[in-house]
Amino acid sequence: MSRLFMFEKPLGMRDTLPDLYETKHHVRSVLEDEMKRWGFQFIETPTLEYYETVGTASAILDQQLFKLLDQEGHTLVLRPDMTAPIARVAASKLLKEKLPNRLAYSANVFRAQQREGGRPAEFEQVGVECIGDETVSADGEMIALAISSLKKAGLKNFQLSVGHAKFVQELFIEILGNEERARELTRFLYEKNYVGYREHVKGLPLSSIDTQRLLSFLELRGGSEVIGMALELIENGKGKEAVLELQELWDVVQDFEEGSFIKFDLTLVSHMSYYTGILFEVYAGKVGFPIGNGGRYDGLLEKFGKSIGATGFALNLDRLLEALGQLDGNIPAACILFSPERRKEAYQLASERRASGERVVLQDISGVKNLDACTNKFSDVAFLIGKAGKEPAQ
C-alpha cells in the first residue's frame, strides 16, 4: 500500500466546509420541522450496531458494510441505513403501545464504495417510519409527506416514480414458474438494463403470448392509465390485489392534491430487498440518482421477532442539496473590530447584540492584515478603536 498523503481522507469520505454546513443545517431544519408538523417524533440510534442483527437485516450488500470487532470479538457494523435500526428499537421497546409509531430521524449512514464508483461512503438521510399501520392510507401519507417536505425545502422540479414490489414478483412467477427465474429477470430491472431484459425474454422457452406479456410489462410507465394496463396483463390474484392497491393509492394522493408529482413505473424495483408492497423513488432534474426512496416493508420487523406492517421513506440530504442548486450558505453576521484598550467595551457590546439574536464576530484590529477583506465578509461592521469617547462605534 502506498503511503498516504497528509491531507487524504478514507475512500468516500468528505469534509463539510462552513458555507455548505450552514446550507445543510438550514435544509435539514426545514425537513425536520415539516415532519414534526405531520406528527412524527425524532429518534436516535447508535452509529455502531451488531452485524448479526441490524447488519444482516439491513438489505445492504455485505461488501458495502463497514465491519469491525469489539473487545469481546463480536462483529459490529457502522449502520448502513436507518430503517433496520429503527425496526430493532420499535420491536424491542415501542410496540407495547397499540397506536402506530410515527418515528423520524436525521443521521449519517455508511456504505463502503469501490474506488472507481466515486460515490460517498458516508451520507446523511432524513426520513420517517410509520410502524404498525398496514393501510394504503399510510403509504399515501408517506408519499404526500415526502412531496410536502421537498416543496418546503424549496425544490420545484421533481417527480416520484411509484411501483409495487408484489406486482413484479407475482407477474414474473406467474409466467416463469419459479422464484429463481423471476430473480434472474428482476436483476435486469435493478440495473435498468432494458435492452438486456428484452434479449433475455426473447431467449426464454415461453409461448408467444407470455413473451409478449413480459415485453409489454416494460410499457407500464405513465399516469393512472397504467393501472388499467397492469390489470389486463396479470392473471394472478395477489398480483391483481397489488394493482388495486395502486388504484387506492392514487385516490389517496389525489385527496392530498399531490397527483401532479406522481408517475407510475411498475418496472421499479429496489436494491433494498425488504420492500414488500408499494414503493417509490424521488427524482429531480439536476441529479442522475434518486434523491430519496421509500415504501412498505411488512416483513422486516419479523427479523426482530415482531410481525407487523410498516412503511416509510428517506431523503438523501446531499443529493437534495445538489438538486436545489446554488444556495447561499452565508448567514448575516456583524463584526466588532476593536483595539486592545477598548476590548471590555467591545465584549459588552457583542454580548448585548448576541442577546438580541444577532450573530456577532469579535476581532482585535491588531490581528487583521487586510481590513477591506475582513469588513466585506460581514453585513455590519462596528469600530471601537482608540480611547473610549474619542472614536465611537460606527
From TrEMBL:
**Which GO annotations describe the biological process of this protein?**
histidyl-tRNA aminoacylation; L-histidine biosynthetic process
Return the InterPro entries for the record. Answer: aa-tRNA-synth_II, aa-tRNA-synth_II/BPL/LPL, HisRS-like_core, HisRS/HisZ, HisZ, HisZ-C
Keyword Acetylation tagged: no
Q: What is its main location?
A: cytoplasm
Q: Where in the cell is it found?
A: Cytoplasm
One GO CC term, this protein? cytoplasm
Other facts = This function is generally fulfilled by the C-terminal part of HisG, which is missing in some bacteria such as this one.
Full protein name:
ATP phosphoribosyltransferase regulatory subunit
